[in-house]
Amino acid sequence: VLDVRQLYSQTGMFTYDPGFASTASCESKITYIDGDKGELLYRGYPIEQLAEQCDYMEVCYLLLFGDLPTASEKEDFVHGVTYHTMVHEQLKNFYNGFRRDAHPMAIMVGVVGALSAFYHDSTDIRDPKQRLIASYRLIAKMPTIAAMAYKYSIGQPFTYPRNDLSYSANFLHLMFSVPCETYHPSPTLERAMDLIFTLHADHEQNASTSTVRLAGSSGANPFACIAAGIASLWGPAHGGANEAALEMLEEIGTPDQIQTYIAKAKDKDDPFRLMGFGHRVYKNYDPRAKVMQKAAHAVLDELGVSDPLFETARELERIALEDEYFIEKKLYPNVDFYSGIILKAMGFPRSMFTVLFALARTSGWIAQWNEMIEDPSQRIGRPRQLYTGPTRRDIKPIHERG
Ligand code: ACO
């Protein structure tokens, strides 16, 4: 491993690495990706096993504490998290300040950042107890805050959390219950929601996680750091891709249009890309996309929905995977390719897709943030640059310029 610190101090040299494609910014014990094999491990456990055998609360525990919980550890953890599901009543005022048609991600960035103004007893990052309470608070409150953003956008009253439900069932209740009718998700939908959370929980040093770490490296409080992560996740090249992928499938419409869009994606003069395809690290099938495709079947069957977009998606995948361009560039479906189809079938509006991603990724962000704070070699993140602007010059009086 190249010790860049040594290289810089001994020679004054530093590396130029746009997009940090070959720069490790930290050491981490949390998530491992083998992009060539298409393998993803959380703390050593394969994502397929976690998706099949664990629920999201166990995954959160695993990411935060390093191993899967025993039954009693899980009980304590779930109790600790559910204790914090409510938000301060005054927080409602923040929602009222947004336009009714505000994108829920815009609301998320603002409201999550505002948590630091409410929970002063969990902003001292040097105190492990305060860090733990902040972690619990963030994991617990995200579903409440996310559902409030949705309810606000459709003009319905906010729903209060139910601590007798699982994390995922509670979120579905927050989203879809109304004062006159409680929403009861079927076990298949509750499981699918939980699976989506698990698949999105962490993914090593992606743009939003790196943003959380960079913001945190200055000593900023955890709520501010997670708000920064949410902002970074919003972009269509990252978390916004699930929304963009469904939009693209709707635009393609029927399988007979696929070739036109494949041609557009291959055309260097056309900025169009197949959304939900390609990944900086995976040069093989994203293992999360496989689990997601299977879950899409289960959800559509359960709901008795036959969504033609699912057929279009599968046909698009089949055609792309046989196409020279995609083979040569190693472009495969990523986690976002099928998630939109499931979320749409479950009744989520497109504008909430990235919010769900943010909710699920909060466990990974906060685990990574804690790991960074506890790392004795941690110092403020401060990349260098290659300066390409003017050389030194002197200012002329204003009448002599131009
Ligand atoms: N469709 C068509 N061509 C693509 C695609 C795509 N989806 N993705 C990459 N390419 C091509 C690029 O045009 C480029 O071609 P070139 O070498 O001829 O210039 C080559 O593949 C490499 O692409 P880069 O953009 O350099 O790869 P990078 O690692 O920087 O980007 C990214 C990865 C952003 C995910 C990219 O594949 C993309 O934009 N995909 C679509 C958006 C998407 O699905 N994002 C979700 C990512 S997963 C996540 O955040 C959960």
TrEMBL record:
Stretches with biased composition (Basic and acidic residues): 391-402
Active site positions: 279, 336
Keyword terms, alphabetized: Transferase, Tricarboxylic acid cycle
GO terms for MF: citrate synthase activity
Gene3D superfamilies on file: 2.20.28.60, Citrate Synthase, domain 1 (1.10.580.10), Cytochrome P450-Terp, domain 2 (1.10.230.10)
InterPro entries in UniProt: Citrate_synth-like_lrg_a-sub, Citrate_synth-like_sm_a-sub, Citrate_synthase, Citrate_synthase_AS, Citrate_synthase_bac-typ, Citrate_synthase_sf, Citrate_synthase_typ-I
Record has Transferase as a keyword: yes
Keyword Nucleotide-binding set for record: no
Region (Disordered) residue spans: 381-402
Catalytic activity field: oxaloacetate + acetyl-CoA + H2O = citrate + CoA + H(+)
GO biological process: tricarboxylic acid cycle
Pathway info: Carbohydrate metabolism; tricarboxylic acid cycle; isocitrate from oxaloacetate: step 1/2
Gene Ontology, cellular component aspect: cytoplasm
PANTHER family noted in UniProt: CITRATE SYNTHASE
Family recorded in the similarity comment: Belongs to the citrate synthase family.
Protein name from the UniProt record: Citrate synthase
